[in-house]
Task: structure prediction
Amino acid sequence: MAFNFNWSPLIADTDRVRDMLTSSLNKSPKPPIIVDDIIVNELNLGSTPPELEILEIGDLAEDRFRGIFKMSYTGDAYLTLKTRVQANPLNTYLSTKPSFASPQPLAASSGLTIPLQITLSDIRLSGFVILVFSKQKGITLVFRNDPLESLKVSSTFDSIPFVRDYLQKTIESQLRVLFMEDLPAIIHRLSLRMFSPEYQTAENQERSKAVADGEVPVDPFAGPAQQPVDSAGMPLDGSAPFTLDAPTETYASFSQKNLLRLATLTESQRTLSLFTPGMRDTVYRAWASAADREVANDASTPMLSRPPTLSRIQSTLGSQSGWSSAASQTSDVPSTATRPSLASFASAPTVYSLSSGAPRTRPGRKRKNRVVNLRKDKGDGKDVSETASVSSSGYTASASGSAGPSVEAATGPSSLSNTQILREGEINTPPRSPKKKVGFQQQSVDDSARPQRNDSTIRGRPVTPQTRHSSHMQAADDNDDTPRASMILPEKPTEVEEKRPRRPQRQPLPRMQTLQERPRPAQLNRSSSSEVSLQNLATSAFAGEGSNGGILEQAWMMKMATEIAKRVSDEKGKQQAWRPAEGNEGFDGGEAPPAYVS
Amino acid sequence: MLEFMDYVQTAFHAQSRWNIDNSYAALTTTAQNLLDFRIPQGLRLHVSSLSSPSFATSYTLGSNGLVDGSLSFLYSSSGLSIASKSSDIRLEHLVRGYRRLQELQRPDELHWNEIWHQGKRIDRKDALLYGRLYLPGSTLEALYLRRISPTRMLRLSGVSDASLPNGGSALALLQNDYGKYSTEYLYSTDSALLGLRGLYNFGYDPRTLVSQQPQHSTRAPAHPWDHQSGRLSAGAEAYFSPINKSGGVSCGLRFTTLPTHTGFPYTMTLTVNPLMGNLSTTYAVQAGRYMALCSRFDFNVYSYESDVVVGVELWRRKQAAADVAWASKLVRPGWSKVVEDDVNGVLKAQMDDKGKVGLLWECRVKELLVSLGAGFDLKKRERMLGSVGIEVSYSS
Result:
């Protein structure tokens, strides 16, 4: 491995280094012989960089690095300091003594200040240095031993050998202290300014900016569609809740308890512990994967191409999409063949996920991609799946009711089948268990029926007709795609904001919508995102009715949905207590489904 | 204003016939009194007492920042008969102003101090013990004076403080005063500093004029520098520290007028530090009984730094009592009055070329001695008033 030193940027910014060095030199109390501040006159880092030899690399990642080097420097850097010193030794000696027992000379202790300029050059360094680089935390450089080998000190007193030797000795000792103690701090601060733009501004700005960034994945309205995958993935990084460096905004929308439980879950995965904490108000990926399999049934592209590792990653990352897909419950759904692959894909946060996948079924459908399609044209199904996963993740993020998970999971896969509808309303629609679907009924009957009813109750909209309608459509769609119900991933409510013109293929929506109705209120109670999901619901509900409605109609529906969502959120507080009870209905008594879906 | 303990010490010196002015260290006393007066900081209260002619105590309480104070005790082997009540002490004894030097006195003979009783000498050397404890800083100051002989005095002083290196330091000073000249040897335990001071007074030698009255006006000048009404003195000092391998040298010259001088008394001094290139000249004049002026000019030949300070001292006369004002007017000019304390306040001011002004007002209020001080910095527009302080002292 070779190191390529770009020595110039450091030289370009010597002003800041000079100021920092000046302030650090004047911070400690000065000896009485120095009567003025020490000012760094000139700092030239020379032309040759130090030579590094790697001894050990401890940690290597894209944004982290830790290593031990052997460093030797034989360059021509030099440093010039300027100050004023007291030339009368009697003055410095007596100025620090109490006057009672001092000889109190008449004039022998009068002072004489002399300006002094010192140039440190021919610096020879050789030692072991531990270098830790972290994108967030900057660079930390620590010397294991005293690196200073030799140093040349030249000053205005060079003609006086006594003073010259004294200065050489004193400055060498001070510099050793500087290297061991002050230099790491200076380099750390400097690196923070250079590499992390956030640190250049005030901390508040940094925090607000980070919050804004972090809100994207957290906010169910926001979606990976609006961001590149990577950056969307970053906040959604499953490690975020597990590390202390996670931006605080992550916690803004997540339940702390759930995050803790997720951390425990991750730990248990790593340590072979059998304890899997039950997490409420989450959708488990295992559930979604079952729904995904349904979608995958029709997948035109092989979903098995998805690397199983991805699913694992997704499961760990799926803090937000904690919902184990209802696939586990929907396992009896006919479309089992493709389920495994779907499952892996299904996890929500994996917007970035990727690829292949069953959800990419539905080639026929034209969808509006809310997600940036990073993959090659595998077909719409992929997008659908992505969207679905996104929406599901978003839905989970909103801490939807525990009953929701299964419903969501079911909805997720099912949504795939109705890509277009999902585009607009479906994504908004929280995932519903494929209750209406044939075959899915059993699993989601309890789940979706209730939400459905509740939805109707809460929203005051007649659900039944939609249900009927959806059942129609369900039957119709079944021919087309894999069971949609299971594949109705919880669409990200962010889609709600995108008031795209409704597609004619809105029919599946009502089905999904009804399926999800029961958990919907619980989910809606959670947060604003739940309101959005309610909006999704509403929109999807109406979508089914007026499948060929115009844009205006859709917009009006959206508005209605928003209002209803608001109303529901108002009742959130009242239904808080009610929520947990309902939440457990989705799966038995809070027992967590397996984190991994094989 | 002198603190009570310093006042007692001065009385001790006077009682034991020690001329504190005949020393190189006191070459510029007048200028220091008029220009380098200490301005009180914060609030300070002194309560002192001369419980017996040999024993004095003093307590101070200050609020400069934190509340601090000190206790001090003084013991003198020879009884001091001085006015100790704060209402009786003469303000001129407490407030150091223009230092009017007296004629040189011939040192006392050794046998003058002998006191015999029943065949044995029972006279004792005068000694003074003084200790001061600062609280809460836990600093202890100690002083021991001993008049070994009429021409020799030993002074041992020490400071003990945990924050000082080696826990403190001690200074031993042996002073010899032979009238015409004086020498001092000192040793400080802090960095083993050795010092030597010497002062030589030009003019007549008081030792030679044994029987004659010092009638300077009739005496012929011994040499061109011998002004009858003035005295020229020259001195030098040298310090050396074998541990630090550092030292210092300085020399000085002073000319002061004697009481026989007609006209305003004045004093001129010149001190030189040849190693550092520092020159300092002062000129002080007592322009009247109640006013004194002084100026000082410092200059450094190496760094060309210069400094000018001017100071003034004004005494406030006591207003004659209204009921006897008519009588005092009838007193004939020639009749001399008992010199009473006819001043009840003094104002001191000093100003330097950097815009720093110091004001000090000392007076007697009822039974208390009050001194108010303020320091200004005219260069700083926004914060002109630097430090203000008040000291109240009471003694009994």
